[in-house]
Amino acid sequence: MTTVTRFLLDESRIPTTWYNLAADLPTPVPPLLHPKTYAPIQPSDLEHLFAPEIIRQEMSLERHIPIPDAVRDVYRLWRPSPLMRAHRLEQALGTTARIYYKYEGASPSGSHKPNSAIPQAWYNKQAGIRKLATETGAGQWGASLAFAGQLFGLEVMIYQVRVSYDQKPYRRALMETYGATCVASPSSGTEIGRSVLSRTPDHPGSLGIAISEAVETVLASPDTRYALGSVMNHVLLHQTVIGQEALQQMEMAGDDPDIIIGCAGGGSNFAGIAFPFIGQQMRGGRSRRYIAVEPAACPTLTQGRYAYDFGDTAGITPLAKMHTLGSSFTPPGLHAGGLRYHGMAPMVSHLVELGLIQPQAVQQIPCFSAGQLFARCEGILPAPESNHAIAAAIQEALRCKRDGTRDVILFNLSGHGHFDMTAYQSYMTDKLVDLSHDEHALNEALSALPVAG
């Protein structure tokens, strides 16, 4: 009997709606606050940042939001993405668990990020916007928005965190191939960038600083709007195509996950895989374990404070109630650049507070060890971010081996690591080191949190 490895859906089964977890939460997520008045944000307060439909989705409580046909047409370039059974990894571990992964690395930019980049670009085009500005860490989001902008005729300006700009030149080259302008952040082209560089000329950058530069650019340009790849509700909403497809594919496999795992930096790919299952649970379905895995060097969920904080370093974005390390905190230069953000998505943070999600922190050497084992077994080289989910999945599989249990594990393989070979070379030549955050700097950043509810 042939053992099935891949579970594939045809194009007709691409979801027709995005799933909005806000409709099923037992208590609502605390509202965004205005950065100057600290009053709850009104839709009109966001008009200078986002297209009208993006604002509507950000504040929506509708359970299902239709996906425009034009967006689904682009999704067909890579969606539905495959669900894979990791038979060879199971054999290598000698586990009694069954391991599945949803592979998002077959998208044009190599990660899950186009799931939101495509609709964001389309909604802005429909609103008559000509340019988009954004930030990026490892470059997965920047490459995705650059691709989306090219499809819909939008100029794209990308501020890439300096340490990733230097570590990952080929992701930068991909953004530029798609037609975007990419600069290292902090840059000399913005007031916030010049301010940072005047104090620290060799500053490695942070996503908080890059966000400030992107937003400053938007505020100075009436024909430009902001697009972001994680954290806010509308981004998490767009990513739920992942979990909706996975629900169908797990049925095809005749299995049902006991444990769902995703890496977590801002929360987008974790939400994408987990939220449709969590929503099903909230509507009376079975309970599961949900594990959000973050870097030990940027431990937002495991060591951050649940408080209102700015999404950027300069304090010009709305405040969100989230797990945060402080908007002035600069994480060390770990290779999982997409996970180097000081805050976590408000909705993911809210679920942690409700006890529905288990956060976990992992150092980067065990993550690369897990990624290498996965590549040798399954043939796919994972992105450093995705390695965090793989490390946790392997831990759970080994626990099942010890206990003799047969849990079904599902994790999101959020992207490939083809542009991260220098990191793998460092790991294989014993040059990669585990990094720790500066405890004094963390305490200083937390002490500066705004007092807002």
Automatic annotation (TrEMBL):
Alphabetized PANTHER family for the sequence: TRYPTOPHAN SYNTHASE, TRYPTOPHAN SYNTHASE-RELATED
Assembly mode: Tetramer of two alpha and two beta chains.
Cofactor or coenzyme needed: pyridoxal 5'-phosphate
Record's protein name: Tryptophan synthase beta chain
Domain of life assignment: Bacteria
Positions of the Tryptophan synthase beta chain-like PALP domain: 77-415
Enzyme Commission no: 4.2.1.20
Keywords: Amino-acid biosynthesis, Aromatic amino acid biosynthesis, Lyase, Pyridoxal phosphate, Tryptophan biosynthesis
UniProt similarity note: Belongs to the TrpB family.
Free-text function comment from the UniProt entry: The beta subunit is responsible for the synthesis of L-tryptophan from indole and L-serine.
